[in-house]
What we know:
Helix content is 43%, strand content 24%. By secondary structure, the protein is of the alpha+beta class. The protein has one domain (22-119): Fusion Protein Consisting Of Minor Coat Protein, Glycine Rich Linker, Tola, And A His Tag, Chain: A, Domain 2. Strands 2-1-3 form a three-stranded antiparallel β-sheet.
Amino acid sequence: MKKVILxxxxxxxxxxxxxxxxxxEDYDKVVAAAKAEIEKSLQAPEGELFLFAQAKGxxxxxxxxxxxxxxxxxxxxxxxSNEAGTIKSQNNLKDFVKAMKFNFKMPKGKDYKFNYVFNxxx
Length: 122
């Protein structure tokens, strides 16, 4: 009976650990992980951001300063530049990015700011 309980507890703890987001502390690694997730989201045909841009008719090139913090949440999104894109497209994209949640976490109280250029020119 003890072995069965121990096995069940082991399975539960492994399952709980598997669901946790990895902690990334190094600035360069945080930025690389965030950019990789954005790029994955931009991939056709199933990326969330790709599908969103298609549905909203977003075109142009947008440079954003993005700040993320603690649990992979986006804290701020500032528009640096907008080339050949409409203000409506810019705002739709900005709102989407602001609602993103990255699949990793950072140390408490730390913010990481980086620039990303979104290119929707066909």
